[in-house]
């Protein structure tokens, strides 16, 4: 079958020298199989050190696998890296492909020439990217003067300038405020809908996965721990949500619906922390039940972090 990404039994080991302890081998990716059809959008998530970046480096031809087979858009990433670069767009959140001392616009000109885009094609694509990512206010500014959110939008534009068929984004929203995140997500959804690109995205933010991806692959210790829909992951895990309530007046105890667990009463009865399962209670009904008893001054809710979901997968031995 013709796949956008076809990685089978990928393994990558690093030899590390430990002072006084000789050499040891770290297996960053361990027999990982990852297959994406053309046009699919997949969130590739996992805890720190799970092996996501190493996998992406193997897919994009930066690292050679120790073992396993990999084809990306039908090409072998390392020997055919130059060819592949014309068809894929990559953003590594921590690294830049822009020229720091030049105005943002100049980076696009250089990249356009590197990709041998015709002046007409470059102008049309840039117009779309500038409008979609709202780049106009800072196109003339040197990249080093841009805020993180502005730079990241510039990075995404740089990666998408040559209209790649496959887009690989490593932590594209890290450190961005909510408005920048939403703007970036909206554009990525639109661009994908227009061009039918394949998307592989690593992130620590579940909202990125929810907005951008139909499928989620969870990696843990270099191996696939889950591969399916995000809804399927959440419902199969029954992860608890935590609600923190600050009351207008102190109370020793609240009457909680069955199955809702009291975690703590703090600040002399003002702050109450409770835990519940999303499958058993809706947050709205729970808040309504509590506000029928007391005045709530403030509240916040914590969703399970990706790290918690990953831990849960292993706790149940999946
Ligand atoms: N060049 C290297 N030399 C030695 N060990 C490495 C090297 N690169 C990665 N590792 C190790 O491989 C493991 C996987 O790292 P990787 O960067 O792929 O994880 P990650 O899932 O991308 O993590 P993060 O979310 O923190 O970016 C880690 O234990 C890391 O320390």
Automatic annotation (TrEMBL):
Any Pfam family hit: ABC_tran
Membrane topology: Peripheral membrane protein
Residues in ABC transporter domain copies: 11-246
GO terms, molecular function: ATP binding
Protein's UniProt keywords contain Zinc: no
Localization in the cell: Cell membrane
Domain of life of the native organism: Bacteria
Keywords attached to this entry: Antibiotic resistance, ATP-binding, Nucleotide-binding, Transport
Protein's name according to its UniProt entry: ATP-binding cassette domain-containing protein
Organism: Brachybacterium hainanense
Taxonomic lineage from the root: Bacteria, Bacillati, Actinomycetota, Actinomycetes, Micrococcales
